[in-house]
Amino acid sequence: MLNIVPIWFIRYKFMNSLFLGLSVGAVFTLYAPLTPSLYSMGGIGLALGILIVSRFYHKILNSHYLFIISLFVEVVLLIAMVYFLLSPYNYQSALMIYIAYQATFVFGSYLVRAETLLLAEDTLLTKVDTAKQLGYLFGMAISYLFYRLLDYYTITDSQTQVYDLHFVLIFVEVVVIWLVFRSFRR
User: Fold this and answer.
1) How far apart, in whole angstroms, are the C-alpha atoms of residue 86 and residue 62?
2) What is the mean pLDDT of each run of 10 residues along the chain (186 residues)?
3) In which domain, by residue range, is 40 found?
């Protein structure tokens, strides 16, 4: 059985939210080639995926599956970012990245529920939620400063800016994956 290591789990959640804060503005550029109707289809797929995952809560609401699913989500994100850097920017690459992100969102409710049940202490949950919000805020601030720095160096094309940001995102995601491993022990 795996146990959560609180100090590392808190660091993981901070960096995970830092990643989210860094990347949130990039999706508007990443998804630009997609049509609005695709978002409706993606939403339907997401809802169905969450419904399916929730039907397995009785089996997966434990630390073993929290580790596996957390690692899966982070690896999918890493693969999607590498794919973005290696592929031409077009409808197909935008669609593949959208599908990858939607696949990770399917587990969002599960991850929050498992985290709440497994951590169980209000002081620990407070620390985790504080770390998440601080990570998100720092990520948004770093993202803003990164884009302003690129503007200063006259790199103003949004596709180029988002492409350049992905090098930072990949570094952060590798740290996040390392922290997932540190956050659980036998």
Assistant:
1) 36
2) 95 98 93 94 96 97 97 98 94 95 96 94 96 98 97 96 97 98 96
3) 3-185
